[in-house]
Amino acid sequence: MLLLTASVLLSCVTEKKSTSVAAGPGESAKDYLTIDEALSALKIKEAAFQPARFPPGEQKLPRSFSPPYRSIKPLKLFDNLYFTGTATVGSYIIDTGEGLVMLDTGVGDEDAAMMVEDMKKLGLDPSRIKVIFISHEHFDHYGGVQYLKKNVCPDALVGMSLTGWNMLQTVPPEWAYIGPRPQSVDIYLTDGMKIKIGSLLILFVSTPGHSPGCMSFIFPVTDNGERHVVGIMGGSAVWPTQTETRLYKSSVEYFRAFAAAEGCDVGLVFHPRESDFAALRTRKPGDPNPLVIGKEDFDRVYLEKFRDRYRKMLESGGLPPYPQI
Ligand SMILES: [Zn+2]
User: Fold this and answer.
1) Among 120, 128, 213, 282, which residue's Cβ finds the most Cβ atoms within 10 Å?
2) How far, in Å, from the CA of 62 to the mean position of ligand 1?
3) Burial class (CB in 10 A: 0-12, 13-18, 19+), 30
4) Distance, CA 51 to ligand 1 centroid (Å)?
């Protein structure tokens, strides 16, 4: 159903633009949106939204997400992919050749500011951030958007799922929904949507279960010119209810199907530990990239970690039936 909805939406959009993207001999028709097409198609919905106002009140972050933050030393992971973040959560930055794309933004002002400084250390100009895609509607993923828009890249577009944005309009500012929320969204990400920005072609897959609006990402990168495909599951933990755990289970297998079709051979997460990147730091010229695990292990190792989580949750028994928000 989700796929059907997305394909209908995409076909409406591409049909409208089809005169400018005629396929040449041997070429298949374009199946992605340019950033302008993504905007024009979805702005219509935004007019219907009146973002709720949230009281500024005291909102305390969980301890592990509170400052002071310890930066994971920023890293270049591939020719065009970088990581900045803390020991708790971080962002991936893709250099598209036509601006930077940032995936997630950290917890809030402090760690977003730190990540901006870390980007400079990597030789990236943070003012070139053109688009920010948010994996899901939890504070440790959207929290830096306001800081970035105010201080670093005011013209950057913000994309997240419509479900996620709806959640941010309606869920009280507590628990996983505290911290500074995005003030507007420019692009509503839908299941199966592809967007092209410069050299980046990124595919979005709806993977609810960790949160209702959780989106996962698939995109190619290069390592010394060699093509690989990254898959990032947008949410990590399983939420302890029957409904969400079963949704999570379906989402892992749903994402697996897209990852297999696209040939994912690199699996990343938004909550990496320092040790996840240790082998990369000691990599010598000519060594293979240790983040490339291969297509088989993407399923057998990377996705299996997510499967372990829902299995343990289901085995624990006694889960309440419905989401507790
Ligand atoms: Zn989350």
Assistant:
1) 213
2) 13
3) middle
4) 21
Q: Could you tell me the residue ranges of all domains in the chain?
A: 33-42+74-316
Could you tell me the fold of the domain covering 33-42+74-316?
Metallo-beta-lactamase; Chain A (3.60.15)
CA 67 to chain CA mean position, Å: 23
Distance 306 CA to ligand 1 centre (A): 14
Structure tokens at 127: 């003012």
Cα 26 to Cα 23, 29, 32: the distances in Å are 8, 10, 18
The alpha carbon of 40 and the centre of ligand 1 are apart by a number of angstroms equal to 29
Give the whole-angstrom CA distance, residue 270 versus residue 88: 9
Ligand 1 centroid to Cα of residue 162, in Å, is: 16
294 in Cβ contact with 263 (< 8 Å): no
pLDDT digits (tens, 9 = 90+) for 31-73: 888 888 777 554 444 444 444 455 555 567 777 788 878 888 8
116 C-alpha to ligand 1 centroid (Å) = 22
Task: Kindly report, residue by residue over 125-145, the tens digit of the pLDDT.
Answer: 999 999 999 999 999 999 999
- 3-class SS of residue 147: helix
Kindly report the three-state secondary structure assignment for every residue of 42-91. Answer: HHHHHCCCCCCCCCCCCCCCCHHHCCCCCEEEEEEEECCEEEEEECCCEE
Q: 143 CA to middle of ligand 1, Å?
A: 11
C-alpha distance across the termini of the chain, in Å: 25
